[in-house]
Write a structure and sequence with these properties.
342 residues, mainly beta, Jelly Rolls, five-stranded mixed β-sheet, 1 helix
């Protein structure tokens, strides 16, 4: 069957009339349907209606094909035979069809999207609480899709099991349940850690156990200066020429800084005993030289404070150069006071 088609041009506002009385659209008296095409483009400045004119009989059927392009479709309604077209269809610029059947009393209007369904499912078409968890793809909810919150607040479960914003109270408690009517449920971050109202987290004294520390993670720098102090000693004799005038190499097993050197006289010195100390490269440690006069009482300790060229690398040797000015004799114990470095 060949249908009669009526072309109409879309308007920016007002009404386009469609004749619906038989004979319809210039067709034969037995015609039971008419077809309308809406064409052109416009920017809506008000409501636009497509309305029937004439007297229809029962089962008169009019189908309207929308092929027009309209602007401002979200602000102004488009109404076909008394039924408003969803704004999503107008603003998306899609094609759709409107079927209008007269039942003898009123027009039954059905709006059909194009095959792709473009624009028919918009925010207004989805019922509240209709999207279930199963309809949401895993990992599909990004931070951008979440509602904005209060700066500095966190999300927590309230007493009803609902997630809400939480904030810190003046007493350091975590306030949960800030929505009006739900009241407040308080929770305290306690135990080995506390949190201030400013958000500062404090770990309690003595709370970090050995098991919490990664193996080999505690370096010398993490120890207090007192905990890194160490000392080692060497005993020297000054009773033979073969023991004096040369260099004695003292191996060091760890990185350290020499802070001071102490000489303890063990046997009477026959003459002045001189001791020069150098780093592994042969440079004299600043302030390290110790001279022990012959009149020094046995048991006395002479100390030198070292201030430079005193950083020693593990696996290298410190150098001692002992000598005596005059008669040979005497014995002493030399102690190096150091600070362990990493």
């Amino acid at each position: 069957m060949i249908k009669n088609v009526l072309d109409i041009t879309v308007l920016s506002t007002g009404t386009s009339s469609i004749p619906v009385g038989l004979p319809s659209l210039g067709g034969s008296p037995v015609a039971t349907a008419g077809t309308v095409r809406v064409l052109g483009s416009a920017t809506l400045s008000g409501a636009y209606n497509i309305s029937p004119t004439g007297t229809p009989v029962k089962n008169t059927f009019i189908e309207t094909y929308w092929e027009a392009s309209l602007g401002n479709g979200a602000s102004n309604p488009v109404v076909v035979f008394g039924k408003t077209v969803p704004a999503e269809l107008i603003t998306s610029g899609s094609k759709f069809k409107v079927e209008c059947l007269y039942d003898g009393t009123a027009w039954d209007v059905n709006i059909l999207p194009d095959d792709a369904g473009t624009g028919i499912v918009g925010t207004a078409r989805i019922a509240s609480d209709a999207v279930t968890t199963a309809k949401i793809a895993d990992d599909a909810i990004t931070l951008a899709k979440m509602a904005s919150g209060t700066t500095g607040s966190i999300l927590a479960y309230n007493a009803s099991g609902d997630i809400e914003e939480a904030s810190m109270a003046a007493d350091g408690k975590l306030l949960i349940g800030v929505t009006a009517g739900k009241g407040y449920t308080t929770a305290v971050l306690s135990g080995d850690a506390t949190i201030s109202t400013a958000g500062a987290l404090t770990i309690a004294n003595d709370a970090v156990t050995t098991a919490k520390i990664l193996d080999a993670a505690v370096t010398a720098e993490k120890l207090s200066a007192g905990a890194r102090k160490d000392s080692f000693s060497i005993k020297l004799d000054y009773d033979a020429a073969s023991k004096l005038g040369g260099q004695i190499f003292l191996p060091v097993c760890y990185n350290c800084t020499v802070n001071s050197i102490k000489f303890t006289l063990l046997n009477t010195a026959a003459s002045t005993l001189t001791n020069i100390f150098k780093d592994a490269g042969g440079t004299v440690m600043t302030g390290s030289q110790i001279d022990v006069p012959a009149a020094t009482v046995v048991g006395n300790v002479i100390t030198s404070t070292v201030t430079g060229n005193n950083v020693i690398t593990a696996g290298t040797n410190m150098i001692i150069e002992p000598s005596a000015v005059g008669a040979l004799g005497g014995q002493g114990n030399i102690t190096f006071c150091v600070t362990r470095d990493n």
